[in-house]
Amino acid sequence: MSRSVTYSSYLDLGRILKAQHPASDAHDELLFIIVHQASELWLKLCLHELTSARVAIESDNLRPAFKMLSRVARAQGQLIQSWDVLSTMTPHDYSKIRPHLGASSGFQSPQYRMMEFMLGGRDAKHARLHDKTGDWGQRLREEMERNSLYDASLALLNRRGFPIDQSVTERDLTAPYLAHASVEEAWATIYREPQEHWDLYELAEKLVDLEYHFQRWRFGHLKTVERIIGFKRGTGGTPGVPYLEGVLKQAFFPELLSVRTAI
Predict the structure, then answer these.
(1) With 0-12 CB in 10 A as exposed, 13-18 as middle and 19+ as buried, what is 90?
(2) Crossing angle of helices 198-229/181-192, nearest 10°?
(3) Which residue, 153, 159, 182, 260, has most beta carbons within 10 Å?
(4) Cβ of 10: how many Cβ atoms within 10 Å?
(5) Is residue 89 classed exposed, middle or buried when 0-12, 13-18 and 19+ CB atoms within 10 A define those classes?
(6) 133 and 110 in contact (C-beta within 8 Å)?
C-alpha cells in the first residue's frame, strides 16, 4: 500500500487545489481565498496542539506541553505573516471582491472562536452565532464548560501549593475570567524565584508568548483592514476598525501582564 501513496494522494491535493471558487473575475480574489483557507489550516493545527497541551498541563506533564505551546506560537507567526501578503491588495482591488462576500466575515470562523474559547475569551453569544455552522455551536458550548488553558494552569499552581483563592479555582467557567490578587501573587513568587519553580516559570512564558502572538495577529488584522477599507463597516456587520481596536484591549492572562509591574 505504501508504494501506491504519492505526494498528491497523501496530501489530498486534488481536493485542496480545487477548493478555491472565486465568485468574481477579480484577479485578487484567488489571493483573498487562499490566505483565508491557509489561515484555517494553521488554526486547525493550533487547536490540535492546544488540546493536547491542556491535557498535559492538567496531568502535570509540562515538558511535552512546552513543545506543543512553542509550536502554536510558531504557527501563530504564520498567521501573522498572512496579513503581509493580504495587505498587497489595494482598496480598488478589494472593491471588486467585496460585493460578492455578502455578510461573511473572518470573525465568523468557528476555529478562530474555538481558539479564543480555549485561551479563555468566552462569550455565550459567540457560540450561538455558530449554531448553523455544522456542530460548531455545540462544540463551543462544550468548550465553555471545561477549563480553559489558563484555568488548567491556575489549577496546577494550586495543586503545587500556591494559594489560589477559591473564587478562582471554583469559578463559573462560562463567565469571563476576572483577574485576582492571589493569582498575581502566585505568578510573582514564580517570577521572583525562577530557579525554584523553573517549569512553572517556563509555563508562564509560554502563555505570555501565546497572548503576545494572538494580539499581534489581531493588530495585523486591524492594520490590514484599515489599509484596505479604511473606516467602513465590516462585511459581517461589525463597525470594522473600531471593533478591532476594542478587541485588542481584551487580555486572556491578565495577571501575567500585571505581574511585570508587581515585581
Answers:
(1) exposed
(2) 110
(3) 153
(4) 8
(5) buried
(6) yes
Which residue is it, cell 468557528? Answer: 110
The tens place of each residue's pLDDT in the chain, 263 residues long, gives 677 899 999 999 999 999 999 999 999 999 999 999 999 999 999 999 999 999 999 999 999 999 999 999 999 999 999 999 999 999 999 999 999 988 787 778 999 999 999 999 998 888 998 998 999 999 999 999 999 999 999 999 999 999 999 999 999 999 989 999 999 999 999 999 999 999 999 999 999 999 999 999 998 888 888 888 776 766 666 666 776 777 777 889 999 999 999 99
Q: What is the residue-wise DSSP string for 104-140? A: --GGG-HHHHHHHHHHT---HHHHHTTTTSTTHHHHH
CA distance 75 to 49: 10
Q: State the Cα–Cα distance between residues 26 and 204, nearest whole angstrom.
A: 46
Question: How far is 29 from 21, CA to CA, in rounded Å?
Answer: 9
121: Cβ contacts below 8 Å, ≥ 6 apart: 176, 250, 252
d(CA 120, CA 144): 9
Q: Cell triple for residue 2?
A: 505504501
Rounded Cα distance, 107 and 93, in Å: 21
Cα–Cα distance, 259 to 246 (Å, whole number): 23
